[in-house]
């Protein structure tokens, strides 16, 4: 899915920092997907933070707080990197919904379902970032590659911590 913000009228800047223009465009498109996935996960993590009930309330409420605060910082960093690559950052719910592969339908009936949903979401975000980090490597964009690798590590850690709270 291409970034709706990358339309013909959009002003594309051409920073001359040693990254091939074609590779830079492909990477900026991929990073727009990573941004949208991160945004979708941020919204869903907030939903669990607000709606969790039961004996695991405090632990999951605090864990999701740490996770959504981290995701908020990542959203800004990814968007600013897309701008540094010369492209417009997607903005608004429609753009994010179009670009994200995170399941938009959130199940909030039980704590077990909430946990499984966030585990699945962190996994899908990490899997797609792995592909985008390959685009960064092809573009020889070390900064973006480093950023994406760091984000993958965070999602993998999130999966571990959420899985550790699964009781059945
Ligand atoms: Fe809160």
Q: What is the number of helices?
A: 5
CATH topology (fold) name: Ferritin
The helix/strand order is: HHHHH
Indicate the CATH class. Mainly Alpha
The total tally of domains equals 1
Which residues sit in consecutive blocks of at least 5 with pLDDT less than 50? none
Helix content: 55-70%
Task: For this entry, give a set of tags.
168 residues; mainly alpha; Ferritin; 5 helices; 0% strand; elongated; binds fe (ii) ion
Can you offer a commentary on this structure?
The protein contains 5 helices and no strands. The protein has helices at 21-51, 57-84, 93-99, 111-138, 142-163. The protein is elongated and about 55 Å long. It is mostly helical and 168 residues long. The protein has one domain: Ferritin. Bound molecules: fe (ii) ion.
Record the SSE blueprint:
Blueprint: H1 21-51, H2 57-84, H3 93-99, H4 111-138, H5 142-163
The structure holds fe (ii) ion (FE2).
Provide a brief overview of the structure.
The protein is mainly α and 168 residues long. It has helices at 21-51, 57-84, 93-99, 111-138, 142-163.
